[in-house]
Design goal:
mainly alpha, 347 residues, 81% helix, single chain
Length: 347
């Protein structure tokens, strides 16, 4: 027969499971916001510590300044890129509706060539452009059909943006308390808890700084290069390059090399050479060999294919925020496996 104490513990365990499940569903709509806020808190924590050292008795003010600067740093390039992409997409859709020649970069008007080989390639290129344009128009039609959801999404973005700022602020200001609370309730030894937190922090920096920020830099530079050398729709292709740069080995070459080929095809030899040299000397040599190693000095370098699959899978499972959530979950899993291996070795 169960003792009174056993019944009390059973009731407590059942109540805990039920309330934990209900709490999960309560917070579920905002889990992505909380994960994003926690990630930003880890990335910008050194900046917060710098402000805190100047005003040790005002942690709230230090956190508020950090959040404000972080919001400006993050939102400014996003708004600029979004505006540019929107303008180019609108231009493309106008051309499609007007049934004019389509410039869906790297595409555009191709002057005829006297070289029979080049002329044949141009002819095939035009056929491919026509088919591609038809598919793009179908995609735009689907987007416009569902445009009624746009205003609802704006309100959601505003709410989530406010919650992100709020959570970001408290993660910075009270992060040490949250850390102590999690360690206190964890069944693992403090040593393993600290290893998990340390490893996860390094993984966050590896994913965000070593991969995503580098991808954004490469995408922006590629878009600038496309604009300089007159490749159509540079902002759209810069956005595509951000994703392409996560692909191991090939990376930015997936968008730059076709653009170089396009310039050669339309007899723009000098711009083609200039774009290739810009890519080889700046994007590859400087970013990959100097900037990336510098940013990755104090982080765990996750294998590029793992990051790519985690980003793509995260986007499919979690939506747009999955580009961050996916790699972080995989990083957490790898850290747990590392701790398990250590625990098993000491048994």
């Amino acid at each position: 027969m169960m003792s009174r104490r056993s019944i009390q513990f059973s009731f407590l365990a059942l109540a805990f499971v039920i309330t934990l499940t209900l709490s999960f569903f309560i917070f579920k709509p905002y889990l992505n916001v909380l994960i994003l806020a926690a990630t930003c808190a880890v990335v910008f924590y050194p900046l917060y510590k710098g402000f805190l050292s100047q005003m040790p008795k005002l942690p709230g003010l230090a956190a508020a300044i950090t959040v404000t600067l972080a919001a400006i740093i993050i939102s400014t390039p996003l708004l600029f890129l979004g505006t540019q992409v929107y303008g180019e997409v609108s231009h493309i859709y106008t051309q499609l509706n007007d049934n004019t020649r389509h410039e869906i970069g790297p595409l555009g008007d191709i002057p005829p060539s006297n070289n029979p080989v080049i002329a044949k390639l141009q002819e095939k290129f035009e056929v491919a452009v026509t088919k591609f344009s038809q598919n793009v128009r179908s995609i735009f039609d689907i987007i416009l059909t569902n445009a009624s959801n746009f205003f609802t999404s704006i309100s959601d973005v505003l709410i989530e943006g406010f919650l992100w700022i709020l959570a970001f602020y408290y993660f910075l200001r009270d992060g040490h308390r949250i850390h102590s609370l999690l360690v206190h309730f964890s069944p693992l030894a403090v040593k393993y808890d600290e290893e998990i937190f340390t490893g996860l922090t390094k993984s966050i920096k590896s994913v965000v700084i070593g991969s995503l920020i580098i991808a954004v830099i490469q995408g922006v530079l590629t878009g600038v290069a496309f604009a300089i050398f007159n490749v159509p729709n540079p902002a759209i292709w810069g956005l595509v390059t951000i994703i392409a740069s996560l692909v191991p080995t090939f990376g930015t070459a997936l968008t730059v090399m076709p653009a170089v080929g396009y310039l050669l095809l339309i007899n723009q030899t000098v711009p083609a050479l200039g774009l290739f040299l810009f890519w080889a000397l700046i994007i590859v040599s400087v970013i990959e060999n100097i900037v990336r190693p510098k940013l990755m000095q104090k982080s765990i370098d996750l294998h590029p294919p793992v990051i790519l699959l985690a980003v793509l899978g995260g986007i499919v499972f979690f939506g747009p925020i999955g580009f961050l959530t996916g790699p972080l979950i995989v990083s957490f899993l790898l850290q747990l496996l590392h701790v398990y291996r250590e625990m098993a070795a000491h048994e």
